[in-house]
Amino acid sequence: MAPPALLQLAGVTLGFGSAPLLDGVDLVLAAGERLALVGRNGSGKTTLLCLIAGEIAPEAGLRSAAPGTGIATMAQDPDLSAFATLGDFAAAGLAEAEGWRVAMAAEGLGFRPETPVALASGGERRRAALARALAADPDLLLLDEPTNHLDIAAITWLEARLAALRAAVIVISHDRAFLEGVTRGTLWLDRGVLRRREGGFAGFEAWREEVWAAEDLARHKLDRRIRAEARWAVEGISARRRRNQGRLRALAALRAERREALARPGTAALALAAGTVSGRQVIAAEHVAIRLGERTILRDFSIRILRGDRVAVVGPNGAGKTTLLRILAGELAPDRGRIVHGTGLTPARLDQDRAALDPEATLWDVLTGDGAGRVAGAGDQVMVRGQPRHVVGYLRDFLFEEAQARGPVKALSGGEKARLLLARIMARDANLLVLDEPTNDLDLETLELLEEVLADYPGTVLVVSHDRAFIDRIATLTVVLPGDGRAVIHAGGWREAAPSLPVATPESPSRQLRSEAKEQPLAAPRRAALNFSERRRLDHLPGHIASLEQDLGKLSDALGDPSLFAADPRRFQSLTEAVAKAQAALAAAEEEWLDLAAREEAEDAAGA
Fold first, then answer.
1. Which strands make up the sheet holding 310-314, listed edge to edge?
2. Are residues 281 and 252 in the same domain?
3. Tens digits of per-residue pLDDT, 123-139?
4. What element of type H or E holds 390?
5. 327 plus 434 within the same structural domain
6. DSSP 431
7. pLDDT at position 518, please?
8. What is the pTM of this model?
9. What pairs with residue 171 in β-bridges?
């Protein structure tokens, strides 16, 4: 028997006085469905979620929900002004006995409920909003970019949590790996039309291309028919003027149909040029160490980055990814060790908080002014990789309308701000790109194009990202920061680096040591050769580590029971302590394995 319907939209139209964002949309949502909602920035995805939630009403058409349907939403910009702490906001509307729901979500998502709202970062506010939506235990859960500001561990936790929910879920996200993991159908909002496809998100791109190919064929046939009818009107109408007025009217109707046919929105004209070629060695980090307060970010990190490398840095929030990026770029000095930059470097940077944009500046000034937009632009020209372009024409390349050119940055959406920063960076002849969370808020098509551009870029790229698919497609080296002062280097992208999060597998560091040994700019300190006991210990450790990982998995599964916190607080506490001990034992075993493996590697190299 089919699951019951929770909500229905019939012929819904909404346009806010302009071209319709929603044009005759029909949708039936059933209990337990898991749907991705995708579309270009500005296509109306967030508006559709608001309409489904009942927060706005359609201009035409019908929205109806089954009686008693509980709906919870996670907004991109939540209003916490009425609450003292993040926990107060997340627990609003819950009975006191259900507070464990917020505690569990806060632990999985990585925020402290006791944090005062006034001191909370934007990312913490969004995580609290997500916790609130999850804790509500609704029949229908609406999530708008839930993975922004989440690290990979939190994203993985969220995937598992959503899989365990009974609720129907609609999620907007640019994170393709996340969508593939949690959804079983796709809603595509394109030029006011909502299309639906059943099946995993992995098939979306092929489906989209099929739809576009069919549109192109239909438009081509319509154009041919119009040309044929127009030729007849010129050559054959004079002899049969009266009886062919109907055919003329049909031609006029065809032309009207062609005018009304909505052309697909273009893709941003992303392009990069490396300008002056840098030296072959771009950055060498030699035994770098740094602490921030009481926390060790790096203990002893060395890497050699060559021209053309695309280096991704991944790890939990707070592990020091942005700090490492700043050290490699020469913006922050390490406590110990040194950074050596190659010759002829011209860097360009994109920050995750979009701090380089003055909210009061116009888009025109951002491109033609002082770089941050705080000084009025010099005329109407912007130099794009050494060639003058009119600022409006260049903005059109990045999908901005002419009317937006003189508008303020603060009026832009998150995706539009990301595109504006990309426009400014791509106007320069930079040969070193430093990108901190560049994929946040980008629509899927712009994200795909950015991947293609970076893959073909002849310069060097340093990037921090939690987007696993993005890392897989662009990275040639991935540096994993587990958060304990280590930094593990892998050749390749996310698939190769994944075993190192949250801790390295026995195999991964060995591969990393072998692949990087020839590239290290400084020889590691000589260490004593392994004795017989240490060799036996090195042989035994992989099995021991695997056993510890298995035990930790069982403990984590038991702790993941959502009813445990309320039903048996003592067992919840004892399991929590057991997990902490298991994690410590695993970390110690792996640290021991890393030391012994490095010594064996050095011994083999010395004997070669």
1. 347-350, 432-436, 460-464, 310-314, 477-480, 488-491
2. no
3. 899 999 999 999 999 99
4. strand 387-390
5. yes
6. S
7. 34
8. 0.69
9. 36, 143
